[in-house]
Write a structure and sequence with these properties.
Helix content is 16%, strand content 44%. By secondary structure, the protein is of the alpha+beta class. The protein has a six-stranded mixed β-sheet.
């Protein structure tokens, strides 16, 4: 089990931005989220992996936008009014996740996070590092480093 999600007497509270991928509610430690926007002015990248929706210019910086649905093993989604871009900063890399919609910010104590279920698909299990049961629903917590790693692996295989 990832020590970040172990229950112990020194539990830690963190805030998570929650969002939708298909019908699943996912969460991401807010410390990785640089911004959330709805700019869909993306430039397609010829011969890129299917997980790359395109690139966008974000105040002079080129940001690769990844389709979280594709990374999770789902068919690519269609653009709609609820879609958003989560711009993430992880270990010095800036990239975006195109998601089906955003929800709330949740404050979660690490002692309330449990192991992900064993019945997740291979695509999901490599990205999900823990699960939190809120009052309303189950929230799968995403590890941004794994999202970036998975997308890089898919891009290498597409080349």
């Amino acid at each position: 089990m990832n020590s970040q999600y172990q229950s112990n007497s020194t539990s830690k509270v963190a805030q998570y931005a929650t969002f939708y991928c298909d019908k699943s509610l996912l969460g991401l430690d807010i410390s990785f989220v640089q911004e959330i926007n709805r700019s869909f002015d993306l430039t397609q990248v010829p011969l890129s992996s299917k997980c790359v929706r395109g690139v966008m210019n974000l105040r002079g910086e080129v940001v690769t936008m990844l389709d979280l649905r594709t990374l999770m093993g789902l068919p690519a989604g269609k653009s709609g009014p609820r879609n958003r871009n989560l711009i993430l900063k992880c270990d010095g890399d800036i990239f975006g996740l195109w998601v089906d919609g955003v929800a709330d910010i949740l404050t979660i104590d690490s002692s309330a996070i449990t192991q992900p279920p064993s019945n997740l698909s291979i695509a999901e299990s490599r990205l999900i590092r823990g699960v939190y049961q809120s009052d309303k629903s189950l929230v799968m917590l995403v590890e941004p480093r794994e999202v970036l790693s998975a997308s890089l692996n898919l891009m290498r295989h597409a080349a």
